[in-house]
Amino acid sequence: MKNLVILISGRGSNMESIVNAAIPGARIAAVISNRPDAAGLAFAHARGIATSILDHRNFGSREAFDGELARQIDHYGADLVVLAGFMRILTAEFVQRYAGRLINIHPSLLPAFPGLHTHRKALESGVKLHGATVHLVSADLDSGPIVIQAAVPVEEGDDEARLAARVLAAEHRIYPQAIRWIVEGRVDVIGNHVRVREARPGGPPLVQPPEEAGA
Ligand code: GRF
Questions:
Q1: Whether the predicted pLDDT of 210 surpasses 50
Q2: Mean pLDDT of the chain
Q3: Which domains does the chain show, CATH number per domain?
Q4: pLDDT value at residue 203
Q5: What is the mean pLDDT of residues 188-208?
Q6: Mean pLDDT across the stretch 35-49?
Q7: What 3-state class would DSSP assign to 3?
Q8: Is 171 in the pocket of ligand 1 (CB under 6 A)?
């Protein structure tokens, strides 16, 4: 069983989609929010998931906040740390500590439109396709090996809200899918590239990690 710790700051709809996906082999060990008023906390609590509030305003520095965050994540025995609308820039030290087991969802087809206001940027730029990306987190903002992307059309008459809703529906499909692949042990990272190995229903992965091979 893999322990997931999900970090949120607000609505938490991606967290909901992950919880509702009931991914075999995955257990949501905790949902942690840096904002006491994050709406998603109520959903997690109602589902009997441990919740924790870590208000960044109570910390004197980014390092101090990230240090306590790491302490809590480790307390919950996280195998995978899932950023789901977690609106904090993380220190390089934090990212390094969870390298390979820290994932994020970003509402654009990265590397297009990193940062905030991605839907506005997409509308302004005139792209015909927009979308969402799940990626492993590396030190730079909204970068790292891409696990899965979903594209949606930009339609005539779209405003930010309409486009955001279309992208969000795609997010809710791809985030649980990416986590399923990771939990199944099918994701290999080679440099900046992610390869997802084929599933063999009911059996072990086709290619086993070296330490398990022959065991
Ligand atoms: C999503 O669009 C996500 O891609 C972005 O922030 C938003 C969070 O929404 N990082 P929610 O809190 O999951 O509903």
A1: no
A2: 94
A3: 1-98 (3.40.50.170), 104-215 (3.40.50.170)
A4: 53
A5: 76
A6: 98
A7: strand
A8: yes
Task: Report d(CA 129, CA 122) in Å as an integer.
Answer: 8
Ligand 1 binding pocket mutation candidate from 15, 20, 108, 171 (most atoms within 8 A of CB): 171
State the virtual CA torsion across 105, 171, 209, 1 in degrees, nearest 10.
100
Give, for 196, the enclosing helix (H) or strand (E).
strand 193-196
Averaged pLDDT for residues 176-192: 97
User: Going by CA atoms, what residue is nearest to atom 6 of ligand 1?
Assistant: 85
**From atom 14 of ligand 1, which residue's Cα is the shortest distance away?**
13
For residue 68, give the amino acid letter: E
Q: Whose CA is nearest to atom 1 of ligand 1?
A: 85
Any idea what DSSP says for residue 145? -
Write out the two tokens for 113.
């439109």
Residue 130 a catalytic site member: no
